[in-house]
């Protein structure tokens, strides 16, 4: 048997370090067994998936040295490798499940579903809805079907008993069927959910081992059941521990920079980031801290993975990156690294139009453009003393901007201007007054190049990191403030 593993990211935002972490371990496991590593794009979310996000995933994984044998850009015998191009395959399999009695069309409305869950909540029952809970009166079912009501396809699931999952790291896992929903397999727009597409694609692409995050443990019974319905062999499952913040909470962009783009923009070396991700819950046989990807693949053993939540510590990564710079890069290599990082024609070419109208001598360039070549600006509370806003309003403004920017799919000046205009109207501020603290947070100065252009050039990850940094410099947002901000933010719609 040829070992085949895969990574299946969704192109719905900045490429996440968690994706790279799982990709790294799938790659190492495949190479340890002389197998193949496949990249599949799960782009069935028509609203949030973008081509730009997909390209960032490909670029960031390649930057880290994580190459794949088959994928949307390199092809392979099991394509297409984008789920949006495999719709007919999923429909065919969903129809077969319906014909065999393993799935059914559900015409329940959103309001009806909420009412069903509320009644179960009041009765102190599991909120998982079973086929019998969702069943309509036969006459009503026929009426809705005849009138062309929208429907989803759901799978049949048991109401009682226990599902046993054999996990490569955790051994026997038991999940009570009472906790498992009659999962949606096909959405009302005809697109598959993760659960159907994941199972069908893994089988058709010959995936033998599935290494994924532990957040998928509760979904494993649905996947095992689908394999049984189709009469297929279930791949070996391995649920990896989740990356954690230093406070042991799940790694999230609200507390830590999570985008690979951020670390690339900050000037981390790819080999240092890959090395550090390899240390997340795993260790070399000799316990050394510093090792190459080739060395990790040569020594890899999945059973050396610790189930304790690995802590993603930015200070430790920074230390390791410094070791790489000092020990592995001579002057010529350091020069090449600097040029590849920021001092290259493409990036400098974006910056020149911003500073050209403002310089009289070449020596004016660096003071004007310095923030484009920096990490987090050296700002303090005193940097914001000239801003004529109450502290809470200032924090709320910056926090709202972070949240709005998190939802921007196509990162460009026009899109950012639209978000800024809307928030300026909400805070009843003129654009100049609204952008004053943003100038300081993003550029480190009250007087610099256009902050909108700067944010467009810096990118979403670095822009949001600088805004969050300013929030922390200003004292951060307390739990009570966070609740107030979130309530007011929701009112924006």
Automatic annotation (TrEMBL):
Job of this protein: Catalyzes the attachment of glutamate to tRNA(Glu) in a two-step reaction: glutamate is first activated by ATP to form Glu-AMP and then transferred to the acceptor end of tRNA(Glu).
Subunit structure: Monomer.
Stretches assigned to the Aminoacyl-tRNA synthetase class I anticodon-binding domain: 334-471
EC number of this enzyme: 6.1.1.17
Species for this entry: Salinicola rhizosphaerae
Subcellular location: Cytoplasm
UniProt-annotated binding residues for ATP: 253
Chain span(s) of sequence motif 'HIGH' region: 9-19
Protein name according to UniProt: Glutamate--tRNA ligase
Entries under PANTHER family matching the protein: GLUTAMATE--TRNA LIGASE (PTHR43311), GLUTAMATE--TRNA LIGASE, MITOCHONDRIAL-RELATED (PTHR43311:SF2)
Catalysed reactions, as listed in the record: tRNA(Glu) + L-glutamate + ATP = L-glutamyl-tRNA(Glu) + AMP + diphosphate
Keyword set includes Repeat: no
Similarity comment: family membership: Belongs to the class-I aminoacyl-tRNA synthetase family. Glutamate--tRNA ligase type 1 subfamily.
Keywords on record: Aminoacyl-tRNA synthetase, ATP-binding, Cytoplasm, Ligase, Nucleotide-binding, Protein biosynthesis
